[in-house]
Automatic annotation (TrEMBL):
Keywords: Heme, Iron, Metal-binding, Monooxygenase, Oxidoreductase. InterPro entries: CypX, Cyt_P450, Cyt_P450_B, Cyt_P450_CS, Cyt_P450_sf. The lineage of its organism: Bacteria, Bacillati, Actinomycetota, Actinomycetes, Kitasatosporales. The keyword Protein biosynthesis does not apply. It comes from the Bacteria. Belongs to the cytochrome P450 family. The keyword Metal-binding applies. This is Cytochrome P450, cyclodipeptide synthase-associated.
Amino acid sequence: MADPRFSILSADFAADPYRYFAGLRERSRVHHEPAIDSYFLSRHQDVKRVLTDHEAFTTRTLQVRAEPVMRGPVLAQMTGAEHTAKRGIVVRGFTGQALEGQVRAVRDNTAELVAPFLPRGRLDLVNDFGKPFAVQVTLDVLGLDKRDQRQVSAWLGGVGEFITSLDLTPERRRHCLDCAERLEAYLVPVIERRRRRPGADLISKLCTAEFDGIAMSDRDVTALIINVLVAAVEPADKTLALLFKHLIDHPGQLAQVRADPTLLPAAIAETLRFTPPVQLIPRQAEQDAEFGGAVVPAGATVFCMIGAANRDPAAFTTPDAFDIHRADLGTARSFTAAAQHLAFGAGLHQCVGAAFARAETETVAALLLPLLDQVRHSPGARYREAGLYTRGPVALPLDFTPVRAGAAGLD
Ligand code: HEM
């Protein structure tokens, strides 16, 4: 930025990064952050280039950023035939018939979790509902016991903190590694049982799938499970809460979605463009790379700023407006490799869970909207978001018309 004191690691930036995106795109196309010796890119065109030029920009940085807590190499680190095969296994676990069963799990968990709040007419969509919902649904999909939700959430918190922290203290690092070890110790006997008696869940599929004629090792399966747990849980409650916040803040669009729920996919896609829950994607530059005269040196860590790229006027007209009808959104392609927004990344490592994320958010929102009549922000609640790497509301207290117990028809 023009101001040499500006820092992405500052409290001001953390409070509202969106205020700084235009300045970064226009005046500091390649922003260097000396404290962590990393480079930040904010233009749509530059971010897309980094994510799709797999020779020049690799995921090698994940060896230190993710592998220690994933207890093995994650999908995003792999390339070539190994990546194609293992990615295929995960995709199969989240599409077709498997997806139908998962949508049922989304419905059941929504009904169970929202029921106690309906007669009260008040709920915090993040802490009362979204967080437990995201974990429970993912546990269901994987075939893990939902009663372990609190414990697994706590371990996942440590794993997520390790991956998403830009400056981890040695004490926090130890804590995060401890969480990862405990999560691994919890998963190992489950994997053993699924190998002996496979079921219809994703862990069984991972255990029985073959790659190059060889079954995946326990280490492979463990890393993939932790990969899916973190990747599926971390953005889910954020996406849901951001969707509701934007709709409540735009009552006209909320009324349209209520009247015509087929608009929900557009509202979800626009939420992901406007406020992507994954704000940073790291890569390593394998050779010197030039962006408009500024050079990112070989070996450097590059962070793609998804929030800034998605607000780039070169890619979207009036990018700072939330508009579910925007002509340049392309709802149908927003959850595919052809998406114009970059909330799911781009290229080889683009999110494998995009179709599931859409089905999950659409299902839960379609169930919640009719139940939360006259939904509005609770009086006096101060809205705050947190997170540089993944970002979402800290809380979203909502008021709505109370529903008499038993009148919701959720059984
Ligand atoms: C709204 C929800 C979601 C968002 C915003 C999101 C975002 C992303 C992004 C930005 C990437 C690219 C990472 C990179 O290029 O390094 C990614 C990759 C990935 N996501 Fe998602 N994700 C979501 C939901 C899910 C779900 C539900 C799953 C469950 C399967 C999932 C599994 C993965 C996996 C396994 C990868 C790595 C893929 C690869 O390297 O080939 N994600 N996601």
